[in-house]
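[Automated response] Your request has been received and processed.

Submitted sequence:
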Amino acid sequence: MTTAFDPVVLGGKPLANRVVMAPMTRSRAYGPGAEPTELMATYYAQRAGAGLIVTEGIQPSAAGQGYPDTPGLHTPGQVQAWRTVTDAVHHEGGVIFAQLMHTGRIGHPSLLPDGLVPLAPSAVAAKGQVFTHDGPKDFVTPKELSGAAVEEAIADFAAAARNAVEAGFDGVEIHGANGYLIHQFLADNTNRRSDAWGRTTQGRIRFAVEVVAAAAASIGSHRVGLRISPGNRYNDIVEDNPGEVYRALLERLADLDLAYLHLMEGPDPDLTARLRTAWPGPFVLNPFTHPDATGPDALKLVEDGSADMVAYGALFLANPDLPRRLAVGGPFNAPDRATFYGGDHRGYTDYPALTS
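Generated structure:
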């Protein structure tokens, strides 16, 4: 029987175990350069016992930023600063992927430089507010991406993937979940386009497919993973038929031989099982445990074949040596729920409603 503590090879990279540190946006890249800090190097190195670390969301372009003090991978200074983080993780024997996250309509002009505004598939504002340096502000109506701007956004993801490899990352995870730009193209209420980037199921999935394919062409498909969250309503997302859309998406991506698919599970376990069956490659599962953090019971998902690897979020914040504690049955520090759910924006996570 395979367990979460057995080694595995992911994209040609040997991993010590099958416990994944899930991406958690923490807003600690202080300063105008949006560059990671020594504190972030310490934070990730402390958690290098994970089979795989997936970083916090990293914007692939200045226009992709949606929260205060989140890091980028689009300038030489950012690439150099990330090298400090990857070197620290590798020194401890860890493997680390950069999560590339363009937030799309989720954000605010006050967070963006040079008069930029949030961009999206369609000019549809999200309900709710975003945290800024001046406190919470209502989401604004985003600017609809022109056809040329869509192509530019795809190129930005590919360039950020190349920058990630230059910065020493072992690969990248494309963030196609949680109501951000790629998810906005997939969803019914945020993609109202009548051109080739919308209208039909194939149109809706096209942006996701082309972003992943461009990143794979830039750095090799074995270095690229994709995260999705079918049916996740976070950030005011509505998907009328996620089963159809995501089956079509996986069919289009199946031949790329990606490093993995990372599913952030919603409240429909049957859909999870169908997508697990449909995906031919490694399958990472961030199980639906809301309102509780994912606990030791999730290890059985590897044992029963529901997933090849299992992702933990909140429990990794509170227990930097989580794989060791899971292996011996604890003890476990309890996550600070107030901080984790956004009481302090510096500890902000990008999915408080459906986190691990």
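Summary generated for your ticket: The first strand starts at residue 8 and ends at 10. Residues 340-356 have pLDDT under 50 and may be disordered.
If you did not submit this request, please reply to this message.
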